[in-house]
Amino acid sequence: KVSYDDILSHGVQNVSREQWAFLASEFEFVGGFNPLQFSSDLAQVFAKLTGKGKHVIIVGLNEVVGHNKPMLEVFGKVNRIVIPMARAAGFDFIDINQLVRNEEDLTPDAGGSHYSRETYYKLSQIILSLIKNKTMISEAA
Description:
By secondary structure, the chain is mainly α. It is built from five helices and two strands; from the N terminus they run H-H-H-E-H-E-H. The chain has helices at residues 4-9, 17-26, 35-51, 69-88, 117-140; strands at residues 57-59, 92-94.
């Protein structure tokens, strides 16, 4: 386990000793992206949501546009797990890569993880449409 002094020596700020003690005792992080653990965790979350009959909308991650290539690679790995699981669960899925076509669709210097106002607006319109469609189907039933 990483000590509080270790995180301070690596430049971590705004985390108290008590906060770090809580994180260290409650969570385990081995490092890197573990696809098997992620799939297992996601299956549990999806099962709970499905069991409660919730309308779930999953927004995929941008894996194409941006200068932070390692992050985009991880986002691609996440998408390859999430997309088939979301579809199998019957969840609505929005492919953000259909909205993010070039650097102008991102915020400056975000590397690929944050979008321009216009992109967020387009995304919000898709989400509203999915909600309205689901509501109309529910009311008709």
